[in-house]
Amino acid sequence: xxxxxxxxxxxxxxxxxxxxxxxxxxxxxxxxxxxxxxxxxxxxxxxxxxxxxxxxxxxxxxxxxxxxxxxxxxxxxxxxxxxxxxxxxxxxxxxxxxxxxxxxxxxxxxxxxxxxxxxxxxxxxxxxxxxxxxxxxxxxxxxxxxxxxxxxxxxxxxxxxxxxxxxxxxxxxxxxxxxxxxxxxxxxxxxxxxxxxxxxxxxxxxxxxxxxxxxxxxxxxxxxxxxxxxxxxxxxxxxxxxxxxxxxxxxxxxxxxxxxxxxxxxxxxxxxxxxxxxxxxxxxxxxxxxxxxxxxxxxxxxxxxxxxxxxxxxxxxxxxxxxxxxxxxxxxxxxxxxxxxxxxxxxxxxxxxxxxxxxxxxxxxxxxxxxxxxxxxxxxxxxxxxxxxxxxxxxxxxxxxxxxxxxxxxxxxxxxxxxxxxxxxxxxxxxxxxxxxxxxxxxxxxxxxxxxxxxxxxxxxxxxxxxxxxxxxxxxxxxxxxxxxxxxxxxxxxxxxxxxxxxxxxxxxxxxxxxxxx
Length: 518
Known about the structure:
Elements lengths: L1 H26 L2 H9 L7 H5 L7 H12 L6 H23 L6 H15 L7 H19 L8 H16 L2 H15 L5 H4 L4 H9 L1 H4 L3 H6 L11 H14 L3 H9 L6 H13 L3 H4 L20 H4 L2 H8 L2 H13 L7 H14 L2 H12 L5 H9 L4 H6 L14 H11 L4 H13 L3 H12 L7 H13 L4 H4 L6 H12 L10 H7 L5
Helix pairs in contact: 1-5, 2-14, 4-7, 5-6, 5-7, 7-8, 7-9, 8-9, 14-15, 14-16, 15-16, 19-20, 20-21, 21-22, 22-23, 25-26, 26-27, 27-28
């Protein structure tokens, strides 16, 4: 009776562990899981599936990546991850019992489940690695089911099974080998000392297949990878949350997330500014957070943070430069695992639609047709019923020029020359000038692009006051630029108390007190 109560208690602990795991990943970490889904492009085609045979652990990777593609849905990611962790723990527990261990199997299973869950906190740790553990343990159970270990030739079967496990599960071969060694030692099989050689089988196979798999032996043995113990990165989760909400068009939620944070990161501010620009509020909010991040000073290269690389296409898309949008999406693909990123493929399809290159768009849309999730999106993009891409085409750069590097200044100027009504590009241009404290360039750009239609934003009025005062412009000429009498009175008050924190929301304070970003 007590054993039954104890057994039910263990199952209750495992159930509570599963609930806690799901709750954490759903409510506190789901954006990490969505990032993993976006970082691949799983195609339901025979050609794509065949690529998995180019590396060991093809079955574990195929199953893991397919399930990862379902992380797109709200509850699916945490549910799938929790389920696979529970399955891994159960398979390991049953394997240990089959190996002859009488006590502590549940405890070991819970420890291993917890370790795998902690490793899953990093986006680099693939679900395929958990699948490899499951397959390795399940293969051991299948072999043990037939009681082959009682035969003198069982060591030959174990060698074949380990080799097979390496082919289908990579690191799962080591799981099988360790379980087989435990079984031989616990059951005191006569040939148990021969079983100690089983862990060397994957090493030998990796050395023999180094040219075929093009992997270092150490990577081949542990493929698809062994994670590291780490703490939850809740700051990164918040950044990914802002990015995802922008991606889904939930702009109010982007604003709420950023404004509820006392010190939002530059990554969060980048998307906050994109939302502000679309609401015609970029100049109104530019001085709200310091330092700020527009993205117009970024240079993409091998040392650029991966989050920066994968967000730049959003800026170029918003201001209307399709050439640089395409370039940014291509670079983000290059720095994605296996050079695949579903978000970038969608971006490339849209960019081609806006540019009128339907054949190129169709190339990307056909890829999305072969996914489980994005087929309907591809069809809607082909139809463009709302005219979204036709409207965006009115903003594109029509100037013939060759640009090198990531200098956004000539890009913004050419966009405004092509379409003077591109207010978003105008605000990014003028706000970039002001963040650099380059009032001479600001004044020139303001005259050139706002001469016939003044942009009467408080921020621009404040900057013009500094320029006019510094250039000793006669007072009677100020009225050509300064239309806000209230701000003019505040400027006079500020000059009497320069650097006063009471004016910290103004460009005057920024110009006098704030250091430029390096």
